Amino acid sequence: MPRKPRKGDVAADEAVYGAIRRAMHMGRLAPGTKLQEPALARVLGVSRERVRKALHRLVHEGWLTAVPNRGTFVPTLTVEEMRQIYDVRSMLEAAIVRRLSEGHGAAAAKRLKAHVAEEKAATRRDDRGRLFELSGEFHVLLAELCGNDELTRLLRGLLTRSTMHFSLAAPRQLTNCAGPHDHGDIADAILGGKPDKAAKLMLGHLAGLVTLQAARPPQHEPVDLPEAFRGIKARRNE
Amino acid sequence: MPRKPRKGDVAADEAVYGAIRRAMHMGRLAPGTKLQEPALARVLGVSRERVRKALHRLVHEGWLTAVPNRGTFVPTLTVEEMRQIYDVRSMLEAAIVRRLSEGHGAAAAKRLKAHVAEEKAATRRDDRGRLFELSGEFHVLLAELCGNDELTRLLRGLLTRSTMHFSLAAPRQLTNCAGPHDHGDIADAILGGKPDKAAKLMLGHLAGLVTLQAARPPQHEPVDLPEAFRGIKARRNE
DNA sequence: CTCCAACAGGATGTGCACATTTCTTGACGT
DNA sequence: ACGTCAAGAAATGTGCACATCCTGTTGGAG
Hints:
The structure is a homodimer. The first copy, chain A, is mostly helical. The first copy, chain A, has 2 domains: 7-76 and 219-228, Winged helix-like DNA-binding domain superfamily/Winged helix DNA-binding domain (Arc Repressor Mutant, subunit A, Orthogonal Bundle), CATH 1.10.10.10; 79-214, Four Helix Bundle (Hemerythrin (Met), subunit A). Chain A is built from 10 helices and 3 strands, in the order αβααββααααααα. A 3-stranded antiparallel β-sheet of chain A has the order 1-3-2. The longest helix of chain A has 24 residues, at 79-102. Chain A is elongated. Chain A starts with 11 loop residues before the first helix and ends in a 10-residue tail after the last helix. Chain A binds chain B through residues 10, 53, 56-57, 60-61, 68-69, 81, 84-85, 87-88, 91-92, 94-96, 148-151, 154, 158, and chain B through 10, 53, 56-57, 60-61, 68-69, 81, 84-85, 87-88, 91-92, 94-96, 148-151, 154. Chain A binds a DNA duplex through residues 1-5, 7, 9-10, 36-38, 47-50, 52, 68-71.
């Protein structure tokens, strides 16, 4: 007799999906780690099918790699693949900052200034965790300010994939982006209406990131799943 | 007693996935059409779970839209969404042709010339079907010539989503791109090493396409599923 | 002592049965 | 006649039970 599902379970997949995604973002899961379904189901306290569906989704979105009859693994990005991702980011983000420099609304300017201010505040507080989040969101914010949802979604996927590997390599030692003042300079160029300067700064910024990551090969240490998901579990909010 | 699965079934999902994808590309499925699982399973001759998995994948990739407890539907792209897709394409493809114009190998030049020649041949033969394919592949080819797999995959997704709606609106009346000589001009600019000219031509080309599509609102006629999948089915090859 | 093969344990993949929700049809009341 | 509501039917969502495959281990042979 199948157990009867509750009506609130519609958001459960999202919770499981978010939990795994969060664990990866926190750098708990090293590249090459095998995510086996029964163990995850036990740790997260949900059924195996729920975990299964979440894993499939993560695979389709490029977060994980699936090998038939073998399981799903945390992908080991090569230096070349990472370079390619940053290459695409360069194309898109150069165009983004160029466009924003050529014209943007007052609301956009306000949001941009607010974000830079928050980053500086986090830097002063030496709040690495918050700064890590903000650094990533800065690039998403620029896409959002273009008012193109498709662009935002695409860039978010690219960014998460690149920063994921970043956080895996050096969870809490480095910040997400090379220097927070980079973002401030880029914002200034945008607000000052200097397309070429903004684009040049952005390209330099991204180039700095890719060299920073290339110099830091990922470590191959085995991971204990229950330990990795300590304190994360599957929570409803987000 | 569960029926025992055969070892060749690992590629069956791909076949189902491809069948639905092909039906959409052929313009058989009008926007707003509901794809119900039992009917698809009967038509394609596979189990419902197989269809289910394929639909989920298509939803994750943005081809279909899922409403909880309601089903999955062929998305109705608004003019605004289409404009946004072409906007992102403009950013990427302008950067692509600019880069190719600034330098490319002999093999790249050869492939580019061959493609343009094939397009001209198809035009002379008045082979609309082949020209439709070639027109789309031209843009993918440019991405491939950059040697960036990530870029190619991204652009392919963008292109299929935009041309899908195109083929739905006018399956066999128009060609994929405005004029085949547009592609020839762009190729000439790339081969001649003129970045600005190539980028300008590409932007104009894409702008022409978006206006062409915007002037053609999709029709809302109900679709019969068995009729839509006539001759498509789920085949292994591809 | 090393290597290979058979075996056991476990993980993944898939069909199936049922609960829940939604849509449709029909009847009733205003 | 029209709107409303209820009951039946169909579709979706989910847990479960195997079947298949992979992997690590153990035993024996060279």
